[in-house]
Amino acid sequence: MKRIATIQDFSCVGRCSLSVALPIISAAGIECCGIPTAVLSNHTGFPTFFKHDLTDCMNSFADKIFECGITFDAVYTGYLASASQIGIVEGFIERARREDMLVIVDPAMADDGVLYSQITPEHAEKMRQLCALADVITPNVTEACLLLGEDMISQPTGGDIRLILSELVKTGAKNALITGVEQDGKIGAAAFDGSEFFGYFTEKIPLRCMGTGDIFASALTASLVNGNPLKTALERAVTFVGKAVSSTYSDPERRFYGVNFESVLADSAGLLK
Ligand code: PXL
Fold it and tell me: Measuring from atom 12 of ligand 1, which residue has the nearest CA?
């Protein structure tokens, strides 16, 4: 069975990070080892939260995992809780490196032009270095602009997206992908593999949801590790998120946080294979 190490926080409430990566990757038939960067009462999009930072434990987690001889088919990183733990994550990737091991970096730092609480400019700078180690990076438009040190573009055209993608690839990642891209009234993701631009778009549902980026990156990672090319994995991840948002939209009891990925997981699990 394939095995992924995913390095991100565990938020007790909020349907993000490890809480979504573990079920989605497991449902795709892959062992998912969650390596926590912090434990939070709830994610930082709520009015208040408690965060226990695990930076000081992360090298010890890594030491024991590698002493046990554990190997991974991919390392997938998400929300990192402090700028200082980004170097530790780079060290983890270098120790885990094997031929054919994939590195997927979701530079979870911001959305809608706004940095998440406690994310600093130093964090963005270090995240740029981490992205250079990746096979695939999955920023939203805000994060892509941050990585490039550019002002946020609020309504990017197709030309803007292609320019941002090609600049992102120049910073070192082999493939760049941008989530939350709108095209012809649809929403989805656009990508550049260094030679070709491609994208996949689905019906735009009139609902702003938090947590779609984490669900997207988890589904994409699962599909890539199951051997699909980036184009196929991108289509599957966009489709999966579209179904989850649609299910959330039709839920009269929906919350302001997270999408109802659980209700589509059983049906969609096969889709990720
Ligand atoms: O990627 C979203 C996310 C993950 N983890 C934590 C967050 C957020 C977004 O606010 O606060 C802790």
Answer: 43
Residue nearest to atom 1 of ligand 1 (CA): 108
**Backbone angles phi and psi of 32, in degrees to 5:** -115, 115
CA of 210 to the centre of ligand 1 (A): 9
* Per-residue pLDDT, 271: 55
Buried b vs exposed e over 23-34: b needs ≥16 C-beta within 10 Å? bbbebbebebbb
Instruction: From residue 66, give the alpha-carbon distance in Å to each of 10, 61, 92, 135, 228.
Output: 22, 9, 9, 22, 27
Residue 167 to residue 110: CA distance in whole angstroms: 19
Tokens of 183: 């095209």
Per residue in 141-177, pLDDT tens? Answer: 999 999 999 998 888 999 999 999 999 999 999 999 9
Q: What pTM was estimated for this model as a whole?
A: 0.96
Question: 125 CB contacts (<8 Å, ≥6 apart)?
Answer: 83
Instruction: Give the chain's domains with CATH numbers.
Output: 3-253 (3.40.1190.20)
SS3 (DSSP) at 75: strand
What's the mean per-residue pLDDT of the chain? Answer: 95
DSSP, residue by residue, 20-57: HHHHHHHHTT-EEEEEEEEEEEE-TTSS---EEE-HHH
Each residue of 12-30: pLDDT tens digit? 999 999 999 999 999 999 9
Q: Give Cα separations from 253 to 165, 209, 213, 232, 257 (angstroms).
A: 38, 14, 22, 33, 12
Instruction: Choose the residue to mutate in 16, 50, 210 for probing ligand 1, maximizing ligand atoms within 8 Å of C-beta.
Output: 16
